[in-house]
Write a structure and sequence with these properties.
formyl-coa transferase, domain 3; Rossmann fold; 40% helix; 13% strand; single chain; 11 strands; six-stranded parallel beta sheet; 364 residues
Length: 364
Amino acid sequence: MRMKVLDASRILAGPYAAMMLGDLGHDVIKVERPGDGDQTRSWGPPWQDGQSAYYLSVNRNKRSLTLNVKSPEGQELFRRLAARCDVLIENFRAGEIDGLGLGYETLAKENPRLVFCSVTGYGQSGPWKDRPAFDLALQAESGWMSITGEPGAPPVRVGVAVIDLFTAHFAVQSILSALLERESTGRGRRIDISMLECATASLTYMAQNVRATGVSPTRMGSRHPSIVPYQAFPTRDGHLVVAAGSQPIWERLCHAIGRPELAANPHFADNSHRVQNRDALEVLLSDLFKERSTAEWTETLRSQDIPASPVNDIAAALELPPLRERGELPHRPAPRLGEHTDEILRSLGVDDSDFAGLRTRGVV
């Protein structure tokens, strides 16, 4: 069934969640402020066809409606839209959309089947519910920056806003679960998504390691706390990632690098001992990998079914054969600001003769 989704969010977490629903074939209407729209429309350079590359990356497969939801007329149009939708996604500050008369309790009276998903930094309740949220701050608060970067170096953020993206995935999972539940209950529900909770949940084994030991991990660069070798090594002309994620892979690696005796060495014989003797093994392997180029090592190791890869830049990654050969699904490009306003208003029964007045009054 094709659902109708009202995307009343901006920047990244909410829009990305709504875009994923659009990618799944649902009809997504993006509500934007008249005049300037989503803040990310101005986040450039780079620009593509006159639009921010950032905006384009998270708003495909949507229709754009400009609507001033702080005006009474805009609020009435929003309520009429919500009455026809299956899902609403918003990321106003906690309680703000309720103050506009557009909260779940109000909208559910007209549309009890509505799945209403709120995305905030710290949830709809609790001591931090009124704080603004940005991915950088959340990477720091949640512990992600404490494990990102090289040992002894300053903390760094992950190169993409991963907390926003984790949050979007949690939101979509929750929305789809609520829609499935609605099939049996006939009712939607309010979903409360906290970016901080999504961030800490996504720490997975790193958080569990703290529970197990009482000790917080530190920055390890590309290394893995529980698997060795599983990291980037310098080569003659760059770097090579080697992921010996199982004992058979380790044994094949020893043979591929011409050091079969390492597999029987009691210091490196199993993963537990390799973790304990990480430093000694790293020195040995680093010296060895420096003897040949990244391309030579990559070919050698892959021929023995050992996960190995150069560290590609993004331009190179986008040209990888699996991505090119599997192709890109057809999609609707990200909309221009207000591109579908008239079309959507007509679907609500607004007469064409009213459009000019709504624009003059700043409603759309």
